[in-house]
UniProtKB/TrEMBL annotation:
Keyword Heme: no
UniProt-listed SUPFAM superfamilies: alpha/beta-Hydrolases
Name under which the protein is recorded: Alpha/beta fold hydrolase
Keyword terms: Hydrolase
Family, as annotated: Belongs to the AB hydrolase superfamily.
Pfam families: FrsA-like
PANTHER family per the UniProt record, alphabetical: CONIDIAL PIGMENT BIOSYNTHESIS PROTEIN AYG1 (AFU_ORTHOLOGUE AFUA_2G17550), DIENELACTONE HYDROLASE DOMAIN-CONTAINING PROTEIN-RELATED
GO molecular function: hydrolase activity
Length: 382
């Protein structure tokens, strides 16, 4: 994988996520280049570089908007939102993290105000409070099937939109990016941690979708990115209204995985605060104990919907062996495991080294399992 910070997987992963979501390598080089020889623990310099990068885009966007170039302004505001969000990933909870996240939301709101992003804001009532999200709808005369996209441990709905864009809409599928327990607004603004029984928020979302007239909630797929692959599989196993499932990184036993990583000494500094934060516990050891509930070992046989698992051969977050175990255990008659190799490109976690082909593959697969637009050809991919 391309490592902007050679030998520093944690910081490099933030760079690659920003690139996945439309960031500019030129921007990243100008602003982060001076940090290549700085210690990874210099969080003040890290936060300042990402903030400076984002503020530069915001200034350029404001100038474009004043000149009437709204599409150009919207793109720059969206990029600024990505930079703010990517920069706060390594920052522990506190004023700096909160300010960066608020700036990300503001920049995204500015992009929406330009009037060119095809998004509809929605708010879903759930046992965890309101779940905020955005619908990305295709240009269609009738309600279309829906794919709910779940981020992992540190992706927000804004980052998800910047990553998937209109990929599903172009295939006649409405896409919902949404903040749920442990992600986005819920964890950052309301302190709502993740939960192992993710069928609960999924059920609430489907309940909401069934009240709407602009989607076909008889056909709802779930797509989970990274740790979200757990959320998707768990939802499919226990929510019968899910029509198809995609795990973009195949999970097996998250508790055992994190325990092994910690015991082997791969628990970098962010893990010390991140795991307790996301799980709603006080210490790493308490978090590791609670994470035992996040296992799919006995759950995968309950997944019987059409299933696609996509994984990277060299994934350093979730071993490819976990994806293979998940695939073998899944109860689906229609299931496929796609492992990307170094030769294919996309061998890293969530194909961060080459995500485009994977995203198109997922969208093609889903469009062949969900009803197509009238008159539209169904992709041959199977």
């Amino acid at each position: 994988m391309f490592e902007f910070f050679p030998g520093d997987h944690v910081r490099s992963s933030s760079v690659n996520l920003a690139l996945m979501a439309g960031g500019s390598l030129a921007d990243l080089g100008r602003w982060l280049g001076p940090l290549r020889d700085a210690p990874g623990a210099d969080l003040d310099a890290w936060a300042a570089a990402w903030a400076g990068m984002a503020h530069q885009q915001e200034a350029l966007a404001a100038a474009d908007a004043a000149a009437g170039y709204l599409a150009a302004a919207s793109r720059r505001y969206l990029r600024a939102s990505v930079y703010h969000a990517a920069g706060q990933r390594q920052i522990p909870p506190g004023p700096t993290k909160s300010e960066s996240y608020a700036a990300s939301l503001q920049a995204f709101g500015n992009a929406l105000d330009c009037g060119v992003l095809p998004l509809v804001r929605i708010h879903v009532d759930s046992p965890d409070g309101t779940l905020p999200g955005y619908l990305i709808a295709p240009d269609a005369s009738s309600p279309r099937p829906v794919v709910i996209v779940y981020g992992g441990l540190d992706l927000t709905k804004e980052m998800l939109y910047a990553t998937v864009g209109d990929t599903f809409a172009r295939r006649g599928i409405t896409c919902l990016v949404i903040d749920t327990p442990g992600t986005g607004e819920l964890i950052r603004l309301r302190g709502v941690p993740s939960r192992p029984d993710y069928e609960v928020p999924t059920a609430a979302i489907i309940d909401h979708l069934r009240t709407r007239h602009d989607v076909d909630a008889r056909h709802v797929a779930v797509l989970g990115v990274s740790f979200g692959g757990y959320y998707a599989a768990r939802s499919a196993a226990f929510e019968p209204r899910v029509s198809a499932c995609v795990s973009w990184a195949g999970s097996w036993d998250c508790g055992a995985l994190w325990r092994r990583r910690w015991d082997e000494g791969s628990g970098e500094e962010p893990t010390r605060w991140f795991l307790p934060w996301v799980t709603g516990t006080g210490t790493v050891q308490e978090a590791l104990e609670r994470l035992k509930l996040w296992t799919l070992a006995d759950v995968w046989p309950r997944v019987r919907q059409p299933l696609l698992i996509v994984h990277g051969e060299d994934d350093r977050e979730i071993p490819v062996a976990d994806a293979r175990r998940a695939f073998e255990a899944a109860g689906s008659a229609d299931k496929r495991l796609r492992v990307f190799t170094r030769e294919d490109g996309g061998a890293e976690h969530i194909q961060s080294d080459d995500p485009g082909p994977t995203l198109d593959l997922i969208a093609d697969w889903l469009s062949s399992r969900l009803p197509a637009l009238p008159g539209s050809p169904v992709p041959a991919f199977a």
